[in-house]
Write a structure and sequence with these properties.
alpha/beta, TIM Barrel, 9-stranded parallel beta sheet, 12 strands, FAD-linked_oxidoreductase-like, flavoprotein, Fadh2_euk
Protein backbone atom coordinates (compact mmCIF):
# COMPACT_ATOMS: atom_id res chain seq x y z
CA UNK A 1 0.00 0.00 0.00
CA UNK A 2 1.25 3.48 -0.81
CA UNK A 3 2.94 5.40 1.96
CA UNK A 4 1.47 8.19 4.03
CA UNK A 5 3.59 11.30 4.43
CA UNK A 6 3.74 10.92 8.21
CA UNK A 7 5.16 7.42 7.70
CA UNK A 8 7.68 8.68 5.15
CA UNK A 9 8.78 11.42 7.54
CA UNK A 10 9.22 8.94 10.37
CA UNK A 11 11.31 6.69 8.13
CA UNK A 12 13.58 9.51 6.91
CA UNK A 13 17.14 9.18 8.19
CA UNK A 14 20.34 11.17 7.92
CA UNK A 15 21.23 14.76 8.74
CA UNK A 16 20.14 16.26 5.40
CA UNK A 17 16.55 17.52 5.32
CA UNK A 18 14.04 16.00 2.95
CA UNK A 19 12.38 18.23 0.35
CA UNK A 20 8.88 18.47 -1.10
CA UNK A 21 7.65 20.38 -4.15
CA UNK A 22 4.27 22.05 -4.62
CA UNK A 23 2.70 22.72 -8.03
CA UNK A 24 -0.54 24.19 -9.32
CA UNK A 25 -2.62 22.82 -12.23
CA UNK A 26 -1.94 25.07 -15.27
CA UNK A 27 -4.91 26.70 -17.00
CA UNK A 28 -3.89 25.75 -20.55
CA UNK A 29 -3.14 22.48 -22.31
CA UNK A 30 0.34 23.74 -23.19
CA UNK A 31 0.92 24.59 -19.54
CA UNK A 32 -0.17 21.13 -18.43
CA UNK A 33 2.13 19.48 -20.98
CA UNK A 34 5.01 21.70 -19.88
CA UNK A 35 4.49 20.72 -16.23
CA UNK A 36 4.42 17.05 -17.18
CA UNK A 37 7.76 17.49 -18.98
CA UNK A 38 9.25 19.01 -15.83
CA UNK A 39 8.04 16.21 -13.55
CA UNK A 40 10.97 13.83 -14.28
CA UNK A 41 13.44 16.59 -13.39
CA UNK A 42 11.70 17.19 -10.08
CA UNK A 43 11.39 13.44 -9.47
CA UNK A 44 15.16 13.05 -10.00
CA UNK A 45 15.68 15.05 -6.78
CA UNK A 46 13.77 12.43 -4.79
CA UNK A 47 11.18 14.61 -3.04
CA UNK A 48 9.48 13.02 -0.06
CA UNK A 49 6.17 14.04 -1.66
CA UNK A 50 4.69 16.52 -4.11
CA UNK A 51 1.68 18.77 -3.53
CA UNK A 52 -0.89 19.55 -6.22
CA UNK A 53 -3.22 22.46 -5.50
CA UNK A 54 -6.80 23.19 -6.54
CA UNK A 55 -7.36 26.15 -8.83
CA UNK A 56 -9.10 29.25 -7.52
CA UNK A 57 -12.63 28.38 -6.50
CA UNK A 58 -12.08 24.67 -6.98
CA UNK A 59 -11.91 25.29 -10.73
CA UNK A 60 -9.34 22.56 -11.43
CA UNK A 61 -10.54 19.79 -9.13
CA UNK A 62 -10.64 17.14 -11.88
CA UNK A 63 -7.27 18.20 -13.29
CA UNK A 64 -5.77 18.14 -9.80
CA UNK A 65 -6.79 14.50 -9.39
CA UNK A 66 -5.61 13.60 -12.90
CA UNK A 67 -2.18 15.16 -12.32
CA UNK A 68 -1.90 13.42 -8.95
CA UNK A 69 -2.67 10.11 -10.66
CA UNK A 70 0.05 10.77 -13.25
CA UNK A 71 2.52 11.72 -10.52
CA UNK A 72 1.63 8.53 -8.66
CA UNK A 73 2.14 6.44 -11.79
CA UNK A 74 5.54 8.11 -12.27
CA UNK A 75 6.66 7.04 -8.80
CA UNK A 76 6.00 10.27 -6.90
CA UNK A 77 3.97 10.41 -3.68
CA UNK A 78 1.20 12.99 -4.25
CA UNK A 79 -0.36 15.10 -1.52
CA UNK A 80 -3.66 16.14 -3.11
CA UNK A 81 -5.26 19.43 -2.14
CA UNK A 82 -8.98 19.35 -1.46
CA UNK A 83 -10.94 22.52 -0.76
CA UNK A 84 -14.48 23.35 0.28
CA UNK A 85 -14.89 26.05 -2.39
CA UNK A 86 -17.61 25.18 -4.93
CA UNK A 87 -17.47 21.59 -3.71
CA UNK A 88 -20.76 20.05 -2.52
CA UNK A 89 -20.39 16.91 -0.45
CA UNK A 90 -21.05 14.66 -3.45
CA UNK A 91 -18.09 16.18 -5.29
CA UNK A 92 -15.90 15.90 -2.19
CA UNK A 93 -16.85 12.22 -2.03
CA UNK A 94 -16.00 11.71 -5.72
CA UNK A 95 -12.58 13.33 -5.25
CA UNK A 96 -11.77 11.23 -2.18
CA UNK A 97 -12.97 8.03 -3.84
CA UNK A 98 -10.87 8.88 -6.90
CA UNK A 99 -7.84 9.42 -4.70
CA UNK A 100 -8.45 6.17 -2.83
CA UNK A 101 -8.85 4.19 -6.06
CA UNK A 102 -5.59 5.64 -7.40
CA UNK A 103 -3.67 4.71 -4.26
CA UNK A 104 -3.28 8.33 -3.15
CA UNK A 105 -2.94 8.31 0.64
CA UNK A 106 -2.34 12.01 1.35
CA UNK A 107 -4.82 14.88 1.38
CA UNK A 108 -4.40 18.58 2.19
CA UNK A 109 -7.73 19.66 3.69
CA UNK A 110 -8.41 23.36 3.14
CA UNK A 111 -11.30 25.79 3.08
CA UNK A 112 -9.97 27.34 -0.13
CA UNK A 113 -10.09 30.82 -1.64
CA UNK A 114 -13.18 32.57 -3.01
CA UNK A 115 -13.94 31.87 -6.68
CA UNK A 116 -12.45 34.30 -9.19
CA UNK A 117 -14.35 37.59 -9.19
CA UNK A 118 -15.90 36.96 -5.77
CA UNK A 119 -14.57 38.99 -2.86
CA UNK A 120 -16.03 37.05 0.07
CA UNK A 121 -15.91 33.30 0.62
CA UNK A 122 -19.27 31.55 0.78
CA UNK A 123 -20.04 27.89 1.30
CA UNK A 124 -21.72 26.14 -1.61
CA UNK A 125 -25.12 24.60 -0.91
CA UNK A 126 -24.59 21.16 0.58
CA UNK A 127 -20.89 21.82 1.17
CA UNK A 128 -18.58 22.36 4.11
CA UNK A 129 -17.80 25.74 5.66
CA UNK A 130 -14.21 25.27 6.79
CA UNK A 131 -11.15 23.01 6.84
CA UNK A 132 -12.12 21.70 10.28
CA UNK A 133 -15.45 20.37 9.00
CA UNK A 134 -13.73 18.84 5.96
CA UNK A 135 -11.13 17.15 8.17
CA UNK A 136 -13.83 15.73 10.45
CA UNK A 137 -15.74 14.45 7.42
CA UNK A 138 -12.71 12.66 5.96
CA UNK A 139 -11.96 10.93 9.27
CA UNK A 140 -15.62 10.04 9.86
CA UNK A 141 -15.98 8.58 6.36
CA UNK A 142 -12.63 6.82 5.97
CA UNK A 143 -11.25 6.46 9.48
CA UNK A 144 -7.83 7.71 10.54
CA UNK A 145 -5.75 5.19 8.59
CA UNK A 146 -6.81 5.68 4.96
CA UNK A 147 -5.53 9.24 4.49
CA UNK A 148 -2.76 11.29 6.04
CA UNK A 149 -4.36 14.72 6.35
CA UNK A 150 -2.27 17.87 6.11
CA UNK A 151 -3.60 21.20 7.32
CA UNK A 152 -2.50 24.81 6.84
CA UNK A 153 -0.71 26.83 9.51
CA UNK A 154 -0.33 30.61 9.52
CA UNK A 155 2.77 31.87 11.37
CA UNK A 156 1.58 35.48 11.07
CA UNK A 157 -2.12 34.71 11.37
CA UNK A 158 -4.63 34.10 8.57
CA UNK A 159 -4.72 37.05 6.12
CA UNK A 160 -8.35 37.60 7.08
CA UNK A 161 -7.26 38.15 10.70
CA UNK A 162 -4.45 40.58 9.84
CA UNK A 163 -5.99 44.03 10.31
CA UNK A 164 -4.80 47.60 10.00
CA UNK A 165 -3.15 49.05 13.09
CA UNK A 166 -5.16 52.02 14.34
CA UNK A 167 -3.45 55.35 14.92
CA UNK A 168 -2.04 55.40 18.45
CA UNK A 169 -2.65 51.67 18.96
CA UNK A 170 0.00 50.12 21.19
CA UNK A 171 1.35 46.73 20.17
CA UNK A 172 2.63 43.97 22.42
CA UNK A 173 6.13 42.59 21.86
CA UNK A 174 4.67 39.57 20.04
CA UNK A 175 2.50 41.78 17.85
CA UNK A 176 5.52 43.92 16.95
CA UNK A 177 7.32 40.78 15.76
CA UNK A 178 4.35 39.95 13.49
CA UNK A 179 3.56 43.44 12.20
CA UNK A 180 3.33 43.85 8.41
CA UNK A 181 4.19 47.15 6.74
CA UNK A 182 2.20 47.87 3.57
CA UNK A 183 1.86 51.00 1.44
CA UNK A 184 -1.21 52.23 3.33
CA UNK A 185 0.08 51.50 6.82
CA UNK A 186 0.89 48.73 9.28
CA UNK A 187 -1.18 45.58 9.76
CA UNK A 188 -1.08 42.87 12.41
CA UNK A 189 -2.94 39.84 13.70
CA UNK A 190 -3.67 40.87 17.28
CA UNK A 191 -2.69 38.61 20.16
CA UNK A 192 -6.38 37.90 20.80
CA UNK A 193 -7.00 36.91 17.18
CA UNK A 194 -3.76 34.92 17.04
CA UNK A 195 -4.93 32.94 20.07
CA UNK A 196 -8.14 32.10 18.18
CA UNK A 197 -6.02 31.03 15.20
CA UNK A 198 -4.00 28.67 17.39
CA UNK A 199 -7.13 27.25 19.04
CA UNK A 200 -8.56 26.54 15.59
CA UNK A 201 -5.30 24.91 14.47
CA UNK A 202 -5.37 22.70 17.57
CA UNK A 203 -8.96 21.74 16.76
CA UNK A 204 -7.94 20.68 13.24
CA UNK A 205 -5.13 18.54 14.63
CA UNK A 206 -7.41 17.01 17.25
CA UNK A 207 -9.91 16.24 14.48
CA UNK A 208 -7.34 14.19 12.58
CA UNK A 209 -4.75 16.35 10.82
CA UNK A 210 -1.37 14.57 10.99
CA UNK A 211 0.88 17.43 9.95
CA UNK A 212 0.93 21.19 9.45
CA UNK A 213 2.30 22.91 6.33
CA UNK A 214 2.75 26.62 6.88
CA UNK A 215 1.83 29.38 4.51
CA UNK A 216 4.69 31.50 3.21
CA UNK A 217 6.77 33.69 5.52
CA UNK A 218 10.01 35.62 5.09
CA UNK A 219 10.93 36.27 8.71
CA UNK A 220 12.29 33.10 10.30
CA UNK A 221 11.89 34.63 13.77
CA UNK A 222 8.13 34.69 13.16
CA UNK A 223 8.25 31.00 12.25
CA UNK A 224 10.22 30.28 15.44
CA UNK A 225 7.53 32.09 17.44
CA UNK A 226 4.91 29.96 15.68
CA UNK A 227 6.71 26.77 16.70
CA UNK A 228 6.70 27.96 20.31
CA UNK A 229 3.00 28.79 20.08
CA UNK A 230 2.30 25.27 18.80
CA UNK A 231 4.06 23.86 21.86
CA UNK A 232 2.08 26.16 24.16
CA UNK A 233 -1.19 24.91 22.66
CA UNK A 234 -0.22 21.25 22.89
CA UNK A 235 0.19 20.77 19.14
CA UNK A 236 2.67 17.93 18.71
CA UNK A 237 2.32 16.96 15.02
CA UNK A 238 5.17 17.96 12.66
CA UNK A 239 5.21 21.57 11.46
CA UNK A 240 6.66 21.86 7.95
CA UNK A 241 7.88 25.28 6.76
CA UNK A 242 6.33 26.33 3.45
CA UNK A 243 8.90 28.27 1.42
CA UNK A 244 7.89 30.72 -1.30
CA UNK A 245 11.05 31.73 -3.15
CA UNK A 246 11.59 35.07 -4.87
CA UNK A 247 11.17 34.43 -8.61
CA UNK A 248 10.59 37.99 -9.85
CA UNK A 249 10.28 41.36 -8.15
CA UNK A 250 6.82 42.33 -9.38
CA UNK A 251 5.20 39.03 -8.53
CA UNK A 252 6.82 38.99 -5.10
CA UNK A 253 5.48 42.46 -4.30
CA UNK A 254 1.94 41.67 -5.43
CA UNK A 255 1.82 38.33 -3.63
CA UNK A 256 3.16 39.56 -0.30
CA UNK A 257 0.84 42.59 -0.36
CA UNK A 258 -2.21 40.47 -1.20
CA UNK A 259 -1.43 37.93 1.55
CA UNK A 260 -0.31 40.64 4.02
CA UNK A 261 3.00 38.86 4.52
CA UNK A 262 5.69 40.39 6.70
CA UNK A 263 8.82 41.23 4.67
CA UNK A 264 11.82 42.41 6.73
CA UNK A 265 13.33 45.72 5.62
CA UNK A 266 16.61 44.04 4.66
CA UNK A 267 14.78 41.86 2.13
CA UNK A 268 12.75 44.74 0.70
CA UNK A 269 15.86 46.88 0.31
CA UNK A 270 17.94 44.06 -1.17
CA UNK A 271 15.29 43.24 -3.75
CA UNK A 272 14.75 46.90 -4.60
CA UNK A 273 18.44 47.22 -5.48
CA UNK A 274 18.28 44.48 -8.15
CA UNK A 275 14.64 44.58 -9.29
CA UNK A 276 15.46 45.69 -12.86
CA UNK A 277 17.82 42.75 -13.47
CA UNK A 278 15.93 39.45 -13.82
CA UNK A 279 19.04 37.28 -13.38
CA UNK A 280 20.06 39.24 -10.30
CA UNK A 281 16.55 38.89 -8.85
CA UNK A 282 16.68 35.11 -9.27
CA UNK A 283 20.12 35.01 -7.64
CA UNK A 284 18.73 37.13 -4.80
CA UNK A 285 15.93 34.55 -4.45
CA UNK A 286 18.46 31.71 -4.34
CA UNK A 287 20.65 33.42 -1.74
CA UNK A 288 17.69 34.42 0.43
CA UNK A 289 16.06 30.99 0.15
CA UNK A 290 19.27 29.18 1.09
CA UNK A 291 19.82 31.48 4.08
CA UNK A 292 16.27 30.90 5.32
CA UNK A 293 16.65 27.13 4.90
CA UNK A 294 19.86 27.15 6.93
CA UNK A 295 18.10 29.09 9.69
CA UNK A 296 15.17 26.67 9.61
CA UNK A 297 17.45 23.65 9.83
CA UNK A 298 19.15 25.28 12.81
CA UNK A 299 15.70 25.41 14.44
CA UNK A 300 15.44 21.65 13.98
CA UNK A 301 13.30 21.49 10.82
CA UNK A 302 13.73 18.10 9.15
CA UNK A 303 11.98 18.98 5.90
CA UNK A 304 11.55 21.87 3.44
CA UNK A 305 8.35 22.38 1.44
CA UNK A 306 8.97 24.51 -1.66
CA UNK A 307 6.15 26.42 -3.34
CA UNK A 308 7.64 26.10 -6.84
CA UNK A 309 5.04 28.05 -8.86
CA UNK A 310 5.78 25.30 -11.43
CA UNK A 311 9.28 26.77 -11.86
CA UNK A 312 12.55 24.99 -11.16
CA UNK A 313 15.51 27.36 -11.55
CA UNK A 314 15.38 29.12 -8.18
CA UNK A 315 14.25 26.02 -6.26
CA UNK A 316 17.06 23.94 -7.71
CA UNK A 317 19.47 26.84 -7.14
CA UNK A 318 18.62 26.85 -3.43
CA UNK A 319 19.08 23.09 -3.25
CA UNK A 320 22.46 23.35 -4.98
CA UNK A 321 23.60 25.99 -2.52
CA UNK A 322 22.55 23.75 0.37
CA UNK A 323 24.26 20.69 -1.11
CA UNK A 324 20.92 18.91 -1.54
CA UNK A 325 20.83 18.79 -5.35
CA UNK A 326 21.70 15.49 -7.06
CA UNK A 327 23.65 16.51 -10.18
CA UNK A 328 24.04 12.93 -11.45
CA UNK A 329 20.31 12.26 -11.18
CA UNK A 330 19.58 15.57 -12.93
CA UNK A 331 21.92 14.66 -15.79
CA UNK A 332 20.31 11.23 -16.14
CA UNK A 333 16.82 12.80 -16.24
CA UNK A 334 17.96 15.27 -18.91
CA UNK A 335 19.47 12.46 -21.00
CA UNK A 336 16.29 10.38 -20.73
CA UNK A 337 14.18 13.36 -21.82
CA UNK A 338 16.45 13.97 -24.81
CA UNK A 339 16.17 10.41 -26.17
CA UNK A 340 12.57 10.64 -27.53
CA UNK A 341 13.33 14.02 -29.13
CA UNK A 342 16.47 12.64 -30.77
CA UNK A 343 14.58 9.59 -32.04
CA UNK A 344 11.81 11.77 -33.47
CA UNK A 345 14.36 13.98 -35.20
CA UNK A 346 16.13 10.98 -36.71
CA UNK A 347 12.83 9.56 -37.93
CA UNK A 348 11.90 12.83 -39.60
CA UNK A 349 15.30 13.04 -41.31
CA UNK A 350 14.97 9.54 -42.77
CA UNK A 351 11.42 10.03 -43.99
Amino acid sequence: MAARIDELMAAHSGDAPWVAFEYYPPRTEDGVNNLKKKMPRFKAQKPLYIDMTFGAGGSTSDLTLDLCKEAKAAGLEPNMHLTCTNMPQEKIYEALEGAKAAGIRNIVALRGDPPLGQERWEAVEGGFTCALDLTKHIVKTYGKDQFCISTAGYPEGHPGAIKKVAEGQELSDKEKRRVVSLEDGDYVCSDADFAKEMEYLKAKVDAGASLIITQMFFDVDVFADFLEACKEYGITVPVIPGLMLVQNAGGFGRMTAFCKTRVPASIREGLEAVKEDDAAVKQFGIDLGAKMCEQLMALGCKGLHFYTLNLEKVTFGVMRKLGLFDEDAAAAAAAAAAEPAAAASAGAASA
